[in-house]
Design a protein that fits this description.
single chain; alpha/beta; 5-stranded parallel β-sheet; 3-stranded parallel β-sheet
Length: 262
């Protein structure tokens, strides 16, 4: 089971709701994925417009827990204000906290992120911060009151997979008891499986599913890959070796003398 802020979930896949070809394709992909948590950006969907009202109704139909996010915010002040609106609209203390530093890489602005996380945590929010693999940033976010971290694998929407495996492994090893959800940069089911095999607790996806030729099939593929990755992690992966290791060793096996028949 995946446990985030004392809430337990069967699925280890969190799904974003933006960029799908149609609302119906998003709905079907969410169902196919088995995801129990979906993320929603208040800055991309207007709750006051007719389109926005239809979108919120569709989200409610999914029956998933909504994780509002502060996507597009550039400052701590802006992110805090957006979090307050999200709590009022959705009636939840959960917030996926994003404070973006750079328009090209969409890299988290770590100073503002920590500032906003600390302020929101004191107001009773349960903060899931979108961060990098930086160890010192992780320490400060946890000290600020975050009980979950969401490190990126690569820049948002880049589909590059785990570009800094060493740092991600260090992060996982350094915080064995903190749920770590890989968020951003996952492009293929094999990327997701690899992250879960490394011991990460869950994967948050959006672009890789929404932009696929068939979002429903891709959602299913990711769900199965994540399940396989978790089974492999629990089973215990063998360590890589520099030298060959025969599956049928020669030592201790019987040898038979073969006589030629003339």
């Amino acid at each position: 089971m995946l446990t985030l802020y004392s809430k337990s979930f069967t699925s280890r896949l969190l799904l974003g709701t933006a960029q799908y070809p149609s609302p119906e394709s998003m709905k079907q992909a969410a169902k196919a994925s088995g995801a129990e948590i979906v993320t929603v950006s208040l800055r991309r969907e207007s709750a006051r417009s007719l389109a926005g009202q239809g979108f919120w109704a569709l989200i409610e139909e999914l029956g998933c827990r909504v994780l509002p996010n502060t996507a597009g915010c550039r400052t701590a002040k802006e992110a805090i204000a957006t979090a307050h609106m999200a709590r009022e609209l959705f009636g939840t203390n959960w917030i996926k906290l994003e404070v973006i530093a750079n328009d090209d890489t969409l890299q988290p602005e770590l100073f503002g992120l920590v500032e906003a996380a600390a302020a929101l945590a004191t107001e009773g929010f349960e903060v899931l911060p979108f961060t990098t693999e930086d160890l010192s940033a992780a320490e400060r976010l946890i000290a600020a009151g975050c009980a979950v971290l969401m490190p990126w694998a690569a820049p948002i929407g880049s589909a590059r997979g785990l570009i800094n495996r060493g740092a991600l492994r260090t992060l996982r090893a350094y915080f064995p008891d903190i749920p770590l959800v890989i968020d951003a940069g996952i492009g293929t089911p094999s990327h997701a499986a690899e992250a879960i095999e490394m011991g990460f607790d869950a994967i948050l996806l959006n672009t890789a599913v929404a932009k696929a030729g068939d979002p429903v099939k891709m959602a299913q593929a990711f769900a199965r890959a994540i399940e396989a990755g978790r089974l492999a992690f629990e089973a215990g992966l063998m360590e890589p070796r520099d030298m060959a290791s025969p599956s049928t060793p020669v030592a201790g096996t019987p040898f038979f003398k073969i006589e030629r028949v003339s």
